[in-house]
Amino acid sequence: MTESKNLFTRLSHKGRAGTHIHGFVNPPVYRGSTVLYPDMATRRAAGSKRLEQALIYGVMGTPTHWPLENVVADIEGGTRCQIVNSGLAACTVPLLAYLGAGDHVLLPDSVYGPVRGFADNFMSRMGITTTYYDPCIDAAGIAPLFQANTKVLYLESPGSHTFEVQDVPALAVVAKAKGAKVLMDNTWGIHHFQPFTKGVDVSLQALTKYVVGHSDVLLGSITVNNDADWERVRLTSNQLGMFASPDDCWLALRGVRTMAVRMERQEKSAIEVAQWLAGRPEVKEVLHPALPGARGHDIWKRDFTGACSLFGVVFQPGFADERVDAMAEALQLFGMGASWGGYESLALPSAGMTRTAGTGTFGGPCMRLHVGLEHPADLIADLEQAMLKLHANEA
Ligand SMILES: *Cc1c(COP(=O)(O)O)cnc(C)c1O
Fold first, then answer.
1. Which ligand 1 atom sits closest to the C-alpha of 206?
2. How many angstroms does the Cα of residue 271 sit away from the middle of ligand 1?
3. Fewer CB under 10 Å: which end of the chain, C or N?
């Protein structure tokens, strides 16, 4: 049978054990450091397979890692995938793979905060310099930011907290011409953005979000589309001693089976909530690329096949940050906390994010919302009651 083009079908059938492990539907958890060999010839042959899915030593991966690698590579349309222990590690490992002392990297001003911390506090100590650029920059704008030593153009689209949609294909063309690698954090896009058809060389994701889907596991993936990038990423990850727990991989495999159906429901609910918010007088703007007329909608429509359920809202400038905090605290169904992609809704005021390229100001206090699997009518009612706190005299 030819492989289905439909992600729902592939997520249900990819990376399964068939009937060769006693017929159980799911692959088991393989735990182990040592792998024993029958003879030295086999041992030496295994040692030469560092780039393959081969049993060598626990840290190189197990038959619990492989199906997850294969499913994620399939979701992203790449050839190979390296699973690492967190989404943040999925960001830092490829940066270390392609950058060395004396090199320069271009990071979007909207980049996931801990990556900014890694660049400013860690890469800087290694002699790697960073320029932060406006995530909405076009090809003509980014070209002069490349230096002779620029080795990486890093993308994250839409941007963390503020959802700027980047013109990935146009920016990637410039990077290619300048001889730089294109790394992209594709956590928001997941399967809705196919990075390798748009000029990206290395695509990374926090599987912690929708793949795991239940807010109980941290994992990351680094996906590539050719052997040279695979070797670079794979060896860097191994040399840094990165390792994801097989138990966590097993949980992620369980999560990914229902990911498409969860995301479909959550996408619909998020748009319903976002549209309701857009009609409220307290709201200045909704930062959701899938809403017609929203910032970045045209590029989103061109490059994405759908949206996840994470978006932003900008309140009218008259509301102080403390009022927005009070609203977040008054929410009953939305939890206050970091991360997203789980089954439960979250709300987080965005005040205090670091920006150095002059972006991220929307003329009012911002809040990031993650819509979970609760009924959207209940979520809207919750937002409506909590919004009373925006008005100081209701405090
Ligand atoms: C959460 C997140 C990460 C990091 O993932 P963790 O598993 O929490 O380390 C990276 N990039 C983006 C865009 C994220 O939202």
1. 5
2. 22
3. N
Task: Indicate if 313 and 179 belong to the same structural domain.
Answer: no
> Looking at residue 352, what is its pLDDT?
72
Same domain, 97 and 29: yes
Instruction: Mark which of 254, 277, 293 sits at the end of a domain.
Output: 254
What is the rounded distance in angstroms from the CA atom of residue 68 to the CA atom of residue 205?
A: 13
- Report helix, strand and coil shares of the chain as percent, to nearest 5: 40, 15, 45
Q: Give the end of a domain, one of 204, 228, 254.
A: 254
How many whole angstroms from 359 Cα to the centroid of ligand 1? 21
Structural domain harbouring 362: 259-391
Count CA atoms within 13 Å of residue 155 on its CB side: 33
Question: Is residue 94 reached through a cis peptide bond, with omega within 30 degrees of 0 on the bond before it?
Answer: no
Q: Are residues 212 and 234 in the same domain?
A: yes
Contacts of residue 91, Cβ cutoff 8 Å, sequence gap at least 6: 112, 114, 115, 118, 185, 204, 220
Q: What is the pTM of this model?
A: 0.97
299 and 176 inside one domain: no
DSSP letter at 191 equals T
- At 131-160, the pLDDT tens digits run 999 999 999 999 999 999 999 999 999 998
Q: Which residues form ligand 1's pocket by a CB distance below 6 Å?
A: 86-88, 91, 112, 156, 160, 185, 187, 206, 208, 218, 220, 339
Domain co-membership, 236 together with 263: no
**Nearest ligand 1 atom to alpha carbon 160:** 13
CA 91 to ligand 1 center in whole angstroms: 8
